[in-house]
């Protein structure tokens, strides 16, 4: 999958949701990462074909999604905070999907997502987490060239979120938006970081982990880190720092730190703040 944007701008009256975003990403799974208000959902609305940019253009595999006549079939999408106001039961939704020849994964996903647990409930009476699972069922169960998901694990407990991330990590033609660096790393091969409507970092997984920057978990009573560990950012008990891996291994053996790993997306995300 190749996703490209050229000087992409989207305005909401006097407010600009995207301010000249350009990128060229070739990967089967792409994560758009950023804080609330960074422009993630606006970018996804353009890529899903729901919104035409004010200026510039975006393409997926060479085609502008908002100009495609078959976009409702070629592109499946799921946005955060789904609301179902229709008074039918979940099993009616499942049956509607089952009779669609393009939706071959319905039964498999009903089982994996745990939808059987509330299949007799009405859609308009679901909790936010249950509604999110039904939303994902509709997006993932049918054949599509591209699947676009906005905060796919929002409102879900950690167990269910882990199942979703595992499913998505095997999917092709996937674009997700998330504010969670760990979720982005678990799922994607290519990353776009947005801040206030601008692209501030872009790169592959290889580029992401190429730098000698580590995410270090401090031990509860481990003491102070030596000067050789150059702290870049601090997140409470977790710090992002430049350091030699052998030194970190020694600090771990001495109980000064509880663990460490390549910083990856958390470092790039922190640098964009």
UniProtKB/TrEMBL annotation:
The residues that cross the membrane are none
The region annotated as signal peptide is none
Where in this chain does the record put each ABC transporter domain? 3-221
Molecular-function GO terms, alphabetical: ATP binding; ATP hydrolysis activity
Please name the SMART domains in this protein's record. AAA
Q: Which InterPro entries match?
A: AAA+_ATPase (IPR003593), ABC_transporter-like_ATP-bd (IPR003439), ABC_Transporter_VariousFunc (IPR051782), P-loop_NTPase (IPR027417)
Pfam families reported for this sequence: ABC_tran
Keywords of the record, alphabetical order, are: ATP-binding, Nucleotide-binding, Transport
SUPFAM superfamilies xref list? P-loop containing nucleoside triphosphate hydrolases (SSF52540)
Q: What is this protein called?
A: ABC transporter domain-containing protein
């Amino acid at each position: 999958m190749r996703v490209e944007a050229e000087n992409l701008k989207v305005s909401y009256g006097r407010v600009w949701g995207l301010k000249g975003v350009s990128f060229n990403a070739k990967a089967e799974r792409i994560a758009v990462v950023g804080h609330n208000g960074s422009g993630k959902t606006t970018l996804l609305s353009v890529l899903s074909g729901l919104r035409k940019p004010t200026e510039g253009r975006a393409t997926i595999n060479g085609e502008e999604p908002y100009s495609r006549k078959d976009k409702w079939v070629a592109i499946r999408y799921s946005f955060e905070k789904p609301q179902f106001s229709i008074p039918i039961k979940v099993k009616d939704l499942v049956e509607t999907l089952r009779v669609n020849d393009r939706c071959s994964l319905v039964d498999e996903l009903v089982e994996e997502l745990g939808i059987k647990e509330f299949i007799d409930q009405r859609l308009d009476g679901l909790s936010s987490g249950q509604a999110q699972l039904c939303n994902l069922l509709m997006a993932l169960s049918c054949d599509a060239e591209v699947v676009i998901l906005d905060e796919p694990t929002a409102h879900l407990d950690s167990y269910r979120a882990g199942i979703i991330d595992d499913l998505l990590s095997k999917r092709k033609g996937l674009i997700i938006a998330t504010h969670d660096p760990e979720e982005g790393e678990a799922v994607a091969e290519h990353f776009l970081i947005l801040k206030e409507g601008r692209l501030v970092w872009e790169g592959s997984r290889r580029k992401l982990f190429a730098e000698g920057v580590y995410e270090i978990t401090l031990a509860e009573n481990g003491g102070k880190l030596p000067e050789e560990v150059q702290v870049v950012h601090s997140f409470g008990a977790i710090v992002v720092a430049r350091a030699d891996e052998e030194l970190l291994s020694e600090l771990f053996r001495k109980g000064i730190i509880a663990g460490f790993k390549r910083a990856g997306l958390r470092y790039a995300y922190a640098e964009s703040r």
